[in-house]
Structure formats: C-alpha cells, structure tokens
Design a protein that fits this description.
Belongs to the glycosyltransferase 8 family. Pathway: Glycan metabolism; pectin biosynthesis. The structure is a single chain. 29% of the residues lie in helices and 12% in strands. Helix 4 links the parallel strand 2 and strand 3. Helix 11 crosses helix 12. It binds 2-acetamido-2-deoxy-beta-D-glucopyranose (NAG) (4 copies).
C-alpha cells in the first residue's frame, strides 16, 4: 500500500518500512538503536575476526540506556575544551580496553567513574579496541553523549605471536596486552595514565587516584606482599638462575595489573614495553609462568612498584581463575571493586547465579533489559 508522496521516489516508503522492520527484528529495540543504527549500517566494519568475537549478526549488540550528563563541580581545574584538551595538563587520562565480551563491564566502569568524580568533564577516556572500533565508538557515544574519549585501534598481530596459552583462555586475549603498548599508542604529550580493567567499578573520586605520587617508579598499584611469589612462576623459572636473578636484591610483591597508575614518560625512557616482550619471548621457549599478561609485569616491575592504598583495588571478587566461587569483600575502606578472577557480575546475573557482592555492581549496569521493552 504505497502512495506517491509529492515528488519523492516511489521506493522511499517501502524502503523505510523495510529497514524499520529489519531493525525491529534484528535488535532489541531501544530509542538509542534508532539513533545509532543508520550510522552502523553505513559504516559496517569487516567481519569480526577470531573466535572471541561475537558472530557477524548485528543482533549481538546489546542495548544500553543513555547515562545522565555529569558536570564539573566548582573546584575543578580548568580545562580548555575548545583547544587541544588531550594535552591539557589538567586532564585526567583513563585507559581501558573495549570489546564486545566485556562491553557491559566497561560501560558500568565508565558510569561508575563519572558518577563519583567531582570533575567528570576533566576525565578523558582512551579505549583500545581490536575489532569493530567504529561501532564501539558510536555505541559509547550514544550511551555517554557528553563523554570525552578516543578509540584507538589495537593491532592484535602485535602480540598474537608472543602469547603462550595460559590456565584460562580469557587471559590470553590479545587485548589484555594492550596495557603494555599504551606508551606507543597514546599521544606523546600524555605523561600519566590510569589503566583500568573492564570488570571493576570505582566508587570514589578517581581524581584522588590520579594524584598519587609515584616517587622514582614508573607504575603505582596496590601491592600484596603477603602472597608467596613462588607460585606465580614455574619450577623451571626458579631453577634457572639466569632467569630468577631478576628478583635478586628486590622485594617483589604481587600486584594486580588491572589497576595501575602509569608514568608514561618514565615508561618510554626505560622502554618497558621491550622488557615485557622479552619475558614473553622467554615464556614462549620455556614455560616460566601459568597466568596470562600478569607475570611479565611481575618480572619487570616486581619490587619497583609504588604502593597505593589497598582501597583502590578490592580484587578477586570474581573468585578464583578456575571455578569462580563467590568471594566476600576484604575488610577496610573501598574505593574500587574489582571482579578479577573467573566470575563476572554481568554473566552471573544473566545466569541467575549471582554472588552477594554482585549487588554492588548492579546499580552501574546500564544494559537495557530486553524485558523492559516488551
Ligand atoms: C582555548 O583554546 C582556544 C584554542 O586553542 C583559544 O583560542 C582560547 O583562547 C582558549 N580559551 C581560554 C579561555 O583559554
Ligand atoms: C595536540 O597537541 C599535541 C602536541 O602538542 C599533538 O601531538 C597532538 O597531535 C595534538 N592533537 C590534536 C588532536 O591536535
Ligand atoms: C613459598 O612457597 C614455597 C613453595 O610453595 C615454599 O618453599 C617457600 O618457603 C614459601 N616462601 C615463604 C616466604 O613462605
Ligand atoms: C636459563 O634461561 C636462559 C635464558 O632463557 C637460557 O638461555 C638457558 O639455556 C637456561 N638454562 C637452563 C639450564 O635451562
């Protein structure tokens, strides 16, 4: 039933109706879908590569609510947003990875950071994506229309050949290694960056963490000196003095690489990326550790980390790496909750197998439940 409308070509209306129908059937419709889809369609990325990616079907994209606008409080440092704000010394730089699997976690993390900082407009996010970068950019833009962020393409080929299989396949994802390449990818004027995993929420002002003094060190992180370092490396490592003497004269402590304050200038000068790659090369010849991207960091920085208050990484909430059992909070104040380990709150919620601590993540979940639209 098509009527001619003025001078418009006859086909316009059927086409619009068809494309609307395909949107309705292919996606869980939300207001945001209608804004974003046309651009997605006109700028479709090549088929995603690798088994980790969702299938080419666009219906795999979940729908999210749009976050409210967050504005700076009165006492925030002035950042000139019409100029080159990436290089503004008052900007706060946060780096995270962005991929389809952890998307819901990343969105919750961004939301939590904005919600709790007094100066949300001074925060710039730097996202590393390996696939469908443009689509992810549109998605972030649609959820946080006011957000200052950049999406950088992380070329997985940089690390693919260096990755040795670990105990948990998720740990082997090339994007996990993006944190080692930030100094090469970010603009040279960025001197400091906070690296954050996607399975965490921040419940305090990130500007406090940003202000951490790093002393002579290139990175700062909460350290856990009671853990026995022996278990992070294999017997072959400890037996080989050429390798294990890396720790001679140091007091290495375990730290989690999911929350790091990083001095990019010191990092570039010392070329830590090359050191990390060196250890990945050793691992590919002789198995010296079992976990993924963490042990090379322990090898390079163990004993050379500026300790940060433990409140900034309440880690392990995802349980252990093999079973993902429920964990409770450690005692003490909390500024950041981290579901490191196998269990992720959004997956446990979908499976209706939540742990008590997951209720702390729920308020930051911006996923638009399909049920709420039916
Ligand atoms: C902000 O930066 C722009 C472009 O560099 C410049 O023209 C403008 O004067 C600056 N504004 C302030 C208030 O500094
Ligand atoms: C901002 O300035 C820095 C150095 O001053 C430069 O490297 C960078 O490319 C500039 N970025 C933009 C978007 O102009
Ligand atoms: C660490 O563990 C190893 C074996 O698991 C043990 O031999 C060593 O004594 C432990 N070190 C400390 C300081 O507890
Ligand atoms: C110890 O490690 C070094 C460096 O990887 C290697 O060249 C050497 O062959 C190893 N020694 C033994 C006894 O395995």
């Amino acid at each position: 039933m098509v009527h001619r409308q003025g001078n418009r070509p006859l086909l316009t209306w059927p086409l619009i109706i068809l494309s609307l129908l395909s949107l309705v059937s292919a996606t869980r419709v939300s207001p945001f879908d209608f804004r974003v889809r046309p651009e997605l369609h006109s700028d479709r990325s090549p088929e995603p590569q690798g088994p980790q990616s969702y299938a080419a079907s666009e219906s795999a994209w979940p729908s999210f609510r749009e976050a409210p606008v967050f504005r700076n409080g009165r006492r925030c440092a002035f950042v000139n947003r019409t100029g080159n704000d990436t290089c503004d010394p008052n900007s706060v730089h946060i780096a995270m990875t962005l991929d389809v699997e952890y998307l819901r976690g990343s969105i919750a993390a961004i939301f939590s950071i904005l919600k709790h900082t007094a100066c949300p407009e001074n925060v710039i996010f730097h996202f590393f994506a390996a696939n469908r970068d443009e689509e992810l950019r549109f998605l972030v833009c649609s959820i946080f229309p006011f957000l200052r962020f950049k999406v950088y393409h992380f070329d997985e080929a940089l690390v693919n050949s260096r990755i040795s299989p670990s105990v948990r396949p998720a740990l082997d994802h090339p994007l996990n290694y993006a944190r080692s390449y930030m100094s090469d990818i970010l603009e040279p004027c960025i001197q400091r960056v906070i690296y954050l995993d996607s399975d965490l929420i921040v419940v305090d002002d990130i500007v406090k963490l940003w202000g951490t003094k790093l002393g002579p060190h290139a990175i700062g992180a909460p350290e856990y000196c009671h853990t026995n370092m022996t278990k992070y490396f294999t017997d072959a490592f400890w037996a080989n003095r050429t390798l294990s003497r890396i720790f001679d004269g140091k007091k290495p402590c375990y730290f989690n690489t999911g929350v790091m304050v990083m001095d990019m200038t010191k990092w570039r000068i010392a070329n830590y990326r090359a050191e990390i790659e060196h250890w990945m090369g050793v691992q590919s010849r002789t198995r010296i550790y079992e976990l993924g991207s963490l042990p090379p960091f322990l090898l390079v920085f163990g004993g050379l980390v500026e300790p940060i208050d433990h409140r900034w990484n309440q880690h392990g909430l995802g349980g252990d790496n093999l079973e993902g059992k429920c964990r409770s909070l450690h005692p003490g104040p909390v500024s950041l909750l981290h579901w490191s380990g196998k269990g992720k709150p959004w997956i446990r919620i979908d499976q209706k197998k939540t742990c008590p601590v997951d209720s702390l993540w729920v308020p930051y979940d911006l996923l638009l439940s399909p049920l709420s639209y039916q």
